[in-house]
Structure formats: C-alpha cells, structure tokens
Amino acid sequence: MDEFVNKEIEITDRLVNLIGGEIVSIEFNIKDKSKLDYLLCSNFEDKQKITKKKVKRFKKEIDNCREEIAGYLIELADIFENGHYYLEQGNVTKYFISDYYDDLVQILVKENIDISEILDLEDLTTSYGFNYEFIQDYINGVCNMYFYQYYKLSLDKTDKKVAEDEFEKVKKSRKIFSSDKVDITYLDDLFSKNKDILPQSIINAYNNIGDIKSLFITQIEGKTIKNVYLDDVEPFTNIEGDILIDYYCIESNYLNLLSKIEDSTFVFFDNLPIDLYLYEYAKAFILAYSEFETILNQNQTLISDTQEQKALKIFSYVLNSKYKNGYFGGEYENIEELKNKKGMYVSNEDMYDWGYKGGQYYKAWEIILNNPLIFEPLFSKFIVSKTIDEIEVTEDTSPNNHLKSTIEDYLEEFKEEINNNGYEILVKALFEYFTNGIFPILATKINFKKINKKRVGFALKTLYQSEKTESISFDYLLFAKTNINLFANEMVEEHNFRKSNLYKAFTTNPAR
Fold first, then answer.
1. Which of 143, 145, 144, 125 is nearest to 135 (CA)?
2. 482 vs 316, 423, 509, CA distance in Å?
3. 206-229 b/e with 16+ CB inside 10 Å = b?
4. How many CB atoms lie within 10 A of CB 24?
5. If you write DSSP's letter for every residue of 430-447 in order, what string do you get?
6. Portion of the chain with pLDDT greater than 70, in percent
7. Would you say residue 325 has pLDDT above 60?
8. Given a cut of 70, is residue 194 above it in pLDDT?
9. Which of the given ranges, 22-26, 162-166, 294-298, has the highest pLDDT on average?
C-alpha cells in the first residue's frame, strides 16, 4: 500500500512540475515582451499608461475564465504577496489535478509508468482520452492572475503618494524590523571570538567569503528613507535620522549592485529611489534571519532529522552559491548579454527575494561558527582551500594527463554549449576531484545554454564510472546541483539521494 501511495505522489508531482514548467515558460515570454514595451517608452508617464493597459487586459482575461478554475485563481490572488508564491502555486496545482485528473493519475499508477517517460503533458492527456484544453485553460488562468497582480502591484507602488505610503508602513512595522527587536550577531566578531576552536577547513571557507560590511536603513525627519553604507560614514560621525534596520552584506556583491545600476545593467521597474528597494531587501534579510531555525525545524521529515541531517541542511545554504549570491542579484548569469538587451528590470519582489536568500546565508554561517565541530566533517568533505585558479592541470605524459584527456573526451560535445570559460572550469574541477577526491571552490556557476540536462548528467555519470568503477556518489551530485545551472533547482538529500530526480537525471540515458 505504501508503495502504491508513493507512486501516486510521484506521478502527481511530475504532473505538477510539467504544468509549472509551462506556466514559467509563458511567464518568461510575457516578461520579455513587456521589457521591450517599456524600453520603447520615452518617459515615466508612458510606462504608467502601458502598465494600466496591462492591468486592464489581464483583468478582462480573468473575468472571462472558466467557472471551474475561478476558485483556484482566487486562492492564487490571496497568496501573491506572501513571499512563497511559487511554492503555494504548486500546492494549488496539486488540488487542481486531484479534483479533475485523479482518474488519470490512478491509471498511470496501475500501469506503473516511469515518471521519466512522462515528458509531454498534451500527448499524455490526449493519449488516455483526457481533456488537455482544460489544463491549458488552467495554465492560462494562472498566468493571467499572476500578471494582473504583478502589474496592479506596480501601479499601487508607483502612485504619486507611494513614498508617503512606504513611510507609513515603516512607522507601523518599526517594532517588527528595528534592530533592537532582532539582534543580529556580526559574523566577523563571532569568527574572531571562536577562531581558536575553529577547524582549518571552516577558517579557509569563511575567509573565502570576502569582506562583510554593515548597512543601515534610516528614516530622516519621519519621512525620507535612506540606505547607509557604514564605510561611507566618517569616523565618529552620527548617522543622520533614526535607524530602522541594520543588516549585513558581502562588500563585493553590494559594490557590484551599484555598478550594475550605474551601467544600466539593472533598471528599476518604477523609477523609485534605490533606498526604497534596499529597504525591501533589508526587511526580507531580517525576516529570513529571524525565522531560519523555526522553518528548519518545521521542515523536518516525518521521522525527526538526526543531528547530521540537520547539519547538512544548514550547510547546504553555505555551499549553494544562490544563497551567497542572493545578495543583490548575484544569480543572474550573463551580464554582458543583459547589457546588450539594454538592461533588466528589477522589481521590489526581486529585491525581497534576494534579501531573503541573503538572510538565510548569513544565519547559516552564524550557526556554523557557533557549532564548528558538528560541521567540520562537512567542510572537510566538500570544501577545500583551493580555488579553481590554483589547480594546475598537467600537460605531460603522466597518468594525470591521461585523466585530463579522458575528461575532455566526455565533455567535448558540450564545449560550445557552456557560456564564457565554464568548460575550462568544469574540466579543472573534475580533474581535481578525480585526482584528490574533493571538489575545489568555484567563484561562479558553470552556465550551460539551453540543453537537455539529462545529456549532461548522463555524460558526467559515465565519466564518473570510467574513473571510479562504482555508482555515482552524493558529493558528485551535490557539486552538480551547487555549481551547474541546469541542476540548481533539483532537490537532493544524502540519506535518499538515489531516489531523487537529480539522480535520475544522471542515470537516465536520453534520446539524442
């Protein structure tokens, strides 16, 4: 019975992911078109007119939706601003499948269909005699509701009185977000305090982060919101205004944000001052920092996590570059390409998301520095002091040179599919792993162009088995998830990694 239930969950999740993929694809297309619309505007008023037209258009689409999906759209409208929209959207889609396509799920369970064979939603539903058009109406309805809320929110925030509204929110929420309510430990102080008991592996990893700096959100004369970078303040100078929030950032990421604004890589959606966007960032940073441990405990498996399992979850926030680079949009892959498109629009929602990831990263490091002996085995296993630039790949006739040739043989077909110098970085990282048994620290992700990730995963698996003559290991998969963009969204945990979709992506031989 348990096997039957697990299969049902597995197939339902697969259908949810396929529907989610189609939703995201439509959203990307609409956003790309919107960027062009706004780039052609000559002034702020023109942008406002376009935004109002979009609100009207998507509202009309929602008004004309099928009655059967109206309830799901109302649910999505209620969760739009709760900070976990896409997670909740997946749950709503599960309800939709359960309500209207449970018979299809049961058929697939009885036939014991391998979910890796479920690739095309339209082919699947029509081949079993179910109505795909209804699913398409649901997908379109979800997208219409998302963009109605998205552009309506933009209008609300770009009203002439937006600044005053924001200031009122600050006054009302001051107790929640003020620094005297959430006491944040400065990581450098904690590092110095505990340095004598920190293992060398943790010291090396912490030193590799870069300088961590203090920032403040202040309110001047009960109105103006201002972001203050502490290094810009003269010694012994009082900070102007009342400090509402203090938070921290990696200096290089903060300066990178300012650089992207200066060269128009980032264009803020509604032309508000950068300080208001940083206020959104800071709020999310504080929230993520303060609720990190509570959420971690809530997300435990049915059988309580062991200390080792919990440590691995915390460690994953430090290892995964999207949390470190969550600071101010570090995840965007190809900045030169963005420049060629004359910039990328950044919204309050983006800044909030970046801030939340930054707060998670910061809190994870705090826990690690307070409990170094628990985390030392993980740092020794997954992180070394070498950076990718410190690895020397031999060019002689030694066995190591044969290793380099072997790696290149397996990766050659992807050489033109990897952006920038990612191919060379991947070869070096794999060389280090197969030579010394541990991956190096990568400063940036290896970014593939649009390609079937199973092709890449299967090639990496075949390479692994040619060198190790054994099944692929957890640390090999974790490296791929952490450092290769194709696998960034896959979930994997050590105690059951062979049941993960990531493992299947590596072990399924794809059709060319």
1. 125
2. 9, 16, 22
3. beebeebbbbbbbbeeeeebbbbb
4. 12
5. HHHHHHHSSPPB-SS-B-
6. 74
7. no
8. yes
9. 22-26
Asked if residues 194 and 139 have their Cβ atoms less than 8 Å apart, the reply is no
Give the model confidence (pLDDT) of 174-184 as tens digits: 333 443 457 78
Q: Does the structure show a pLDDT above 80 at 455?
A: yes
Q: Residue 406 burial (CB < 10 Å; 0-12/13-18/19+)?
A: middle
Is residue 382 classed exposed, middle or buried when 0-12, 13-18 and 19+ CB atoms within 10 A define those classes? buried
Q: How far is CA 445 from the centre of its chain?
A: 13
Cβ-contact 105, 15 below 8 angstroms: yes
Rg (CA), the chain: 25
State the average pLDDT over residues 47-69: 85
| Nearest Cα to Cα of residue 459 among 493, 390, 509, 418 | 509
Residue 182: predicted pLDDT: 72
Per DSSP (E only), the strands in 239-340 are 242-250, 266-268
**How big is the chain, counted in residues?**
512
Give yes or no for residue 366 having a pLDDT over 90: yes
Residue 137 Cα distances to 150, 164, 191, 252, 397, angstroms: 20, 40, 54, 45, 62
CA dist 79 and 76 (Å) reads 5
Average pLDDT over residues 474-497: 81
Q: How many angstroms separate the Cα of 131 from the Cα of each of 104, 121, 134, 138?
A: 11, 11, 6, 12
Which string of DSSP letters, residue by residue, matches 81-124? TSS-HHHHHHHHHHHHHHHHSHHHHHHHHHTT--GGG---HHHH
pLDDT of residue 169: 47
Residue type, 42: S
Tell me the two tokens of residue 356.
């939340």
- How many CB atoms lie under 10 A from the CB of residue 327? 26
Per DSSP, 341 falls in state: T
Check if the beta carbon of residue 249 is closer than 8 Å to that of residue 215: yes
**Who has greater pLDDT, 414 or 312?**
414
Q: Is the pLDDT of residue 61 over 80?
A: yes
- Cα separations (Å) of 135 from 23, 46, 121, 125, 265? 11, 36, 9, 9, 37
Q: Which residues contact 384 (CB under 8 A, 6 or more apart)?
A: 201, 204, 438, 439, 440, 441
SS3 at position 369? helix
* pTM for this entry: 0.45
Of the two residues 245 and 168, the one the predictor is more confident about is: 245
Q: Are 333 and 261 in contact (CB under 8 A)?
A: no
Higher pLDDT, 198 or 38: 198
Note whether 345 and 150 are within 8 A (CB): no
DSSP state letters, 202-249: HHHHHHTT--EEEEEEEEETTTEEEEEEGGGSPTTPPPSSEEEEEEEE
Residue 367 near residue 314 (C-beta atoms within 8 A):
yes
Question: Looking at residues 90-109, what average pLDDT do you find?
Answer: 88
